[in-house]
Amino acid sequence: MELILWRHAEAKDGTPDLERELTAKGHKHAEKMAAFLRARLPEHTRILVSPAKRAQQTALALTKHYITDAALGTSASPQTVLDAIGWPDAEGTVLVVGHQPTLGQIAARLLAESNAGFSVRKGAVWWLTRKTNEGDFQTNLKLAIAPESL
Fold first, then answer.
1. What's the CATH superfamily of 2-149?
2. How do the residues of the chain divide into helix, strand and coil, expressed in percent and rounded to 5?
């Protein structure tokens, strides 16, 4: 299984939190990352997106063919997200568009068996792979990139 964690791009401040929209810079970064992903995503990648407007707008830069999942909302726990995507048993590739600190906590749990968390920059992608090596499962970081690096 491959898991791609994509943090929503930069959003405007304000309330209500779920209605915050991307800034002009956020739209630009989402488009850059979407172009990068479009060239690399495996066919039939399953895309799950938080219901927050900023996450929806980030995903729309890539495609309109995604599933909005309330389990990926702004207050989601790492385990709730992992359960929603079927980690580690789901087949293929899953792209999650979500929020900090949850995405960083997922990355830390899967890569370092830590409950702390990594800092995932706005608009950045962390691409994880899970493979079997001599009977053991290993999760590896395939790619971590911020939109500023594209």
1. Phosphoglycerate mutase-like (3.40.50.1240)
2. 35, 25, 40
pLDDT band at 139 (very low <50, low <70, confident <90, very high): very high
User: For tokens 């968390």, what's the residue?
Assistant: 117
> Other CB atoms closer than 10 Å to residue 73's CB: what's the count?
19
Do 49 and 81 meet the contact criterion of CB atoms below 8 Å apart?
no
| CA proximity to 33, closest of 134, 133, 136, 123 | 123
CB 58 within 8 Å of CB 22: yes
Cα 92 from Cα 75, distance rounded (Å): 26
pTM: 0.96
**Domain segments of the chain: what residues?**
2-149
The residue assigned the tokens 């690399």 is 40
Q: Is 146 exposed, middle or buried (0-12, 13-18, 19+ CB in 10 A)?
A: middle
| H or E segment to which residue 27 belongs | helix 24-38
Q: How many residues does the chain have?
A: 150
